[in-house]
Amino acid sequence: MASLGYARVSTVEQNADLQTRALKEAGCLKVYTDHGVSGTKARRAQLDKLLEHARAGDELVVWKLDRLGRNTRQLLDLIDQLESQNIHFRSLTEGIATTGSMGKAMLTVMSAFAQLERDQLAERTKAGMAAAAARGRKGGRPAVTPEAEKVRQAGQYRHAGLTPPEIAKLLGVSRATVYRYLALLAREDNPGGLSPTAITL
């Protein structure tokens, strides 16, 4: 089994010597280092190279968990990828190793918290959509109600020269309702006031 170290610093100016020294003292034959790379990025050149060279039975070692991933879900996804290839994982600072019972227990707890985060996000999304729907909106766009559609049609029929009684018959509503629809449209077109001739027969 070969121990392969991985170190990462977020900016080019930062020095990875502390990580590199700790990894070599932990028995790593080679250390792969990404300079000026954020931990949130899915693709990291040196990490990718390490994964290409690692073989079943090898061990990926980091100085600290956040060097491998900046959030729980990303970290667990990477560890799952390693495990699927029979590559072990160890973090020096936290003392976590997938070959040990305590390390596996810790990863199980982390996985549970990651699932909780996903569930809470899903619940907040559903609650937000429900609130938006209650306000007459769906998916961020105004909801078109059946009445709003009839108001729109009433305006089109009136513009085409039909009388309110004719519009009422076409829409299946009373003449009073048609007058109300046309009044609403007139207020939208003339916010300052409704002209007495706006809905004349």
TrEMBL record:
Alphabetically ordered keywords of this record: DNA integration, DNA recombination, DNA-binding
Keyword DNA-binding among UniProt keywords: yes
InterPro entries on file: Homeodomain-like_sf, Recombinase_CS, Resolv_N, Resolvase-like_N_sf, SSR_resolvase
Taxonomic superkingdom: Bacteria
Limits of the Resolvase/invertase-type recombinase catalytic domain: 2-136
GO terms of molecular function: DNA binding; DNA strand exchange activity
Active site: 10 (o-(5'-phospho-dna)-serine intermediate)
GO-annotated biological processes: DNA integration
Keyword match GTP-binding: no
PANTHER family reported in the protein's UniProt record: DNA-INVERTASE FROM LAMBDOID PROPHAGE, SERINE RECOMBINASE PINE-RELATED
Annotated family: Belongs to the site-specific recombinase resolvase family.
Name by which UniProt lists this protein: Site-specific DNA recombinase
